[in-house]
Specification:
globular
Length: 855
């Protein structure tokens, strides 16, 4: 299979692209094609990292059915894939003979033109393939899997004398069944590695291989129980009870009548549970034609009644902000809502969502963390019922398909989700809300596409309604601590700005107190200072709640031998292992490898290990020991792995069944707790000293956001920050809740050292299991682009953590001026140099990771 060249659109192609979503116009176009006798071809995206999309021919029998955005079955080499038709063309590629499409998998498109354009933009901007975007965008159950099937060769003479024992077992089974799946062959031979056997059987003409695309999505079927029509008459029903000689069955029937009165519909599972009856007793009633069983396809996602119920009134400050947002959308598509913590931004979002639902438009409400969705979704469901749905990584594959289809049909009007929600097939998007827009979680890290959902959403929104002369969907970015880049876009008049400076309900901002750890005499690192302990005691005595923030999970970030200083490290990564007491294991937080706890130093034989620093697990233990009467819980990656763990914990905290909550960044953003009046930041030094140009911005954001959890409901909240350097300038900005001072402080340094928002960054990482090969590849790469971009290159150099997952790392950073032509030229040269390196056998196994706009 060759790669097709980019084709210039023909008149027919342009006509088709304009009419592809309209069935009557499509028929006209098809008639034109039929009259001219022209052959049709399709550019198809398949979920692979290909240099560009391939072209297949469309057989005559499929030409009336093809549409942009539908899935089709195609073959590449010996494998079959479900690809998406990106566009249909009439000009045959000159360089090769396209293979035919094998089958059409959909009657209607799986996505619309806007999504295809978004995929193309992400692939171009973030330097990846559209196949990689497809892999990230579509639910796994819509990406059909290719399953290998062995098919008996009917021309074989059934002479198995030249087969060994393992080959004979498979051949005998094939002769009987005629077809065997790969999984069945593995079961027959009781082995996973069966390819040598299959290869020999093919060579000996016993069978041939067939690749079948297997549909993975399955509808959920539920059995509903109905009363037979003849017994819906009360007289006949009464006669039935009087005449029956089966008391257990009548008890079951009574349970059914009670449930039908309560719920309107009765499922088999709920009836058996309610009546405590057996399936055999139910079958007896069905066999007698008293009850009927009916199988129905149902949604996996619970659907609430669709109604709008807004039970609050905006304050004058909120109403002013809402009016300013609406006015700003008349001139600009993007508005930044800079609202203080607890200022009531969510209520403004709700009012805006109501407006767009009433206009018949769809709304995408993005949040950076799954932890935030639990609380927000309850509020949205209260106001909008079945108009909304939630979408994030904790949903299973079938649930994702159902949400995908309901968004595509327009049934769902509001989608609340993490960054992946951006890829759903909205048909009429009117508004995108990106809450906590500064958050680094909006940026996808591994694998490609390494897109930033906030920035991609700005482009995505521009694609809607433009056909009707509109200016696209509107974007509202919300945060108490905006990213420097977004605030700079305000200053340069690219975005509109609306400010909401006061807290809702006239609540006061929390009082910030700085605790100097250097003044506390202690041989060990202080976890909870006397001042913080006293504040927690006072909070508990008032029946209030406290949050303790520590941005490290685990029990101890690392152990060190007290005699020789040896530190246990991961065998695959150049990092210290973190001790997790609950598991009694040592974990690498980069590759996930678990190790048994060491009690003897392999270097000197000592048994004396010292625990250095502390994580959330140790804080939780200490707090529980210190405050015996308090109910303590922890929220971090280790405790929040289950689908409903976030929601359960947040509900318990809301209901004051938990007094002290210990957590990482998960507790920082967007959560609203009425009874919290104390926040403790246990180790601010770990936030203020980090090798990153965004360190001041990130430290301010984390401390200001976690501080904002205190005193939200007419309480005088307190925030205690434990730190060693009390003179760091960021601490003063936090104490004054002064974002603008932080911005002015940081923007000058960014400009001086050529960092965003004044430049575009492209980070290139070279990974290989041998350090010298990774280094050579990086240096050769730099030599190739040095002529045109030398002044913009930093590196190559090894990062602080120079080995991950058993591969050595070398980094290269390009700081490019904001010149579209120059950036595009640089991207072309990066692709060319990557291809040149990969052509050399020595560097073919080097992983070259390109990250545009790293965070």
């Amino acid at each position: 299979m060759h790669i097709s060249n980019e084709l210039l659109p023909t008149k027919q192609e342009l006509l088709y692209s304009q009419l592809s979503m309209n069935s009557s116009d499509k028929n006209i176009f098809q008639d034109l094609i039929s009259d001219s006798g022209a052959m049709l071809f399709a550019e198809i995206i398949i979920p692979l990292a290909l240099p560009q999309n391939y072209t297949w021919s469309i057989p005559v029998e499929f030409q009336q059915s093809v549409k942009q955005g539908i899935r089709v079955e195609v073959q590449l080499k010996n494998k079959r894939y479900a690809g998406i038709i990106k566009k249909i063309i009439t000009q045959k590629p000159e360089a090769f003979e396209p293979k035919p499409i094998l089958n059409i998998l959909d009657d209607e498109p799986q996505l619309y033109q806007q999504q295809l354009k978004l995929w193309e933009w992400i692939a171009d901007y973030y330097m990846c393939s559209e196949g990689e975007v497809m892999q990230a965008a579509m639910p796994s159950n819509l990406k059909l899997s290719s399953e290998t099937i062995l098919v008996w060769n009917e021309e074989h003479n059934e002479d198995f004398s030249d087969l060994n024992d393992r080959e004979y077992i498979v051949a005998e089974a094939l002769n009987i069944k005629k077809e065997l799946k790969l999984s069945e062959v593995q079961q027959l031979l009781d082995a996973s590695h069966v390819y040598p056997v299959i290869k020999k059987l093919i060579e000996k003409n016993v069978c041939h291989v067939w690749e079948e695309l297997k549909e993975k999505y399955k509808e959920k079927i539920e059995t509903y129980i109905l009363l037979h029509p003849q017994y819906r008459d009360e007289k006949k029903l009464s006669e039935l009870f009087n005449a029956s000689k089966a008391p257990k069955q009548m008890e079951l029937l009574l349970s059914y009548l009670h449930l039908i009165k309560e719920d309107g519909e009765v499922t088999q599972s709920s009836l058996l549970k309610k009546s405590n009856a057996s399936a055999a007793q139910l079958k007896g009633l069905i066999d007698k034609n008293i009850l009927l069983a009916e199988k129905r396809s149902i949604n996996r996602i619970q659907s609430l009644p669709k109604n709008i119920h807004i039970d609050f009134t905006l304050s004058s400050a909120q109403q002013t902000a809402l009016t300013e947002i609406e006015n700003s959308f008349k001139e600009k598509n993007v508005c930044l809502l800079h609202g203080a913590t607890a200022s009531g931004k969510t209520q403004i979002y709700i009012k805006l969502i109501e407006e767009y639902i009433q206009q018949g438009k769809q709304v995408l409400y993005m949040l950076p963390e799954i932890a935030l969705t639990a609380q927000i979704v309850r509020r949205l469901q209260k106001h909008f019922g079945g108009y909304i749905a939630v979408y994030h990584s904790k949903f299973n594959a079938n649930e994702r398909v159902e949400i995908w289809n309901r968004i595509k049909s327009g049934e769902l009007k509001v989608l609340l989700g993490a960054r992946s929600g951006l890829f759903l097939p909205f048909s009429d998007l009117g508004l995108v809300i990106a809450d906590e827009e500064y958050d680094a979680s909006y940026k996808q890290q591994e694998p490609a596409p390494r897109y930033h959902a906030r920035d991609a959403a700005v482009y995505y929104a521009s694609l809607f309604d433009t056909a009707n002369g509109g200016t696209g969907a509107k974007i509202l970015l919300g945060s108490a601590t905006p990213s420097i880049e977004s605030y700079y876009n305000v200053q340069t008049n690219k975005y509109a700005l609306v400010e909401l400076k006061e807290r809702y309900g006239d609540a006061a901002f929390p009082l910030i107190e700085i605790i100097d750890l250097t003044k506390i005499s202690s041989k060990e690192k202080v976890l909870i200072s006397p001042q913080l302990k006293e504040a927690i005691d006072e909070t508990l005595s008032q029946h209030k709640q406290a949050i303790l923030f520590q941005n490290r999970r685990g029990y101890t970030p690392y152990l060190v031998c007290n005699i020789c200083g040896w530190i246990p490290q991961c065998k695959n990564c150049d990092v210290a292992l973190t001790y997790h007491k609950a598991k009694n294991k040592m974990l690498c937080h980069y590759c996930g490898t678990e190790y048994p706890v060491l009690y003897t130093c392999p270097q000197c034989g000592s048994h004396d290990f010292k625990q250095k620093n502390f994580g959330t697990e140790k804080i939780e233990e200490l707090v529980a020991e210190t405050f015996h009467a308090a109910k303590v819980a922890r929220m971090d990656y280790d405790t929040m792995k289950g689908k409903n763990n976030h929601d359960t914990l947040i509900k318990l905290f809301e209901q004051q069944k938990i007094n002290l909550l210990v957590g990482t960044q998960m507790i920082v953003k967007g959560l609203d707790f009425e009874h919290v009046n104390l926040v403790g930041i246990l180790d601010a030094d770990s936030l203020l000293y980090f090798a990153d140009f965004r360190v001041n911005e990130r430290a301010f954001q984390l401390m200001e956001q976690v501080s904002g959890r205190a005193g939200r409901k007419n309480n005088n909240g307190r925030v205690l920050i434990q730190v060693s350097n009390i003179h760091h300038p960021v601490l003063q900005f936090v104490r004054e809740h002064n974002y603008k001072a932080l911005y002015e402080f940081d923007i000058q340094t960014r400009q001086q050292y050529h960092y965003p928002p004044f430049t575009r960054l492209i980070h290139i990482e070279f990974r290989h299991k041998e350090n010298h090969i990774a280094e050579e590849a990086a240096n050769i790469f730099v030599a190739g682009i040095k002529k045109d971009f030398e002044q913009y290159i930093t590196g190559p150099a090894q990062p602080v953590i120079n080995r991950l997952r058993n591969k050595y790392l070398w980094d290269l950073l390009l700081k490019l001026p904001k010149n579209a032509a120059l950036i595009n030229q640089c991207k072309i040269q990066i692709e060319q140099q990557t291809a040149i390196l990969k052509f050399n056998k020595r560097y073919r196994s080097v992983d070259i990771i390109v990250d545009v706009d790293p965070v």
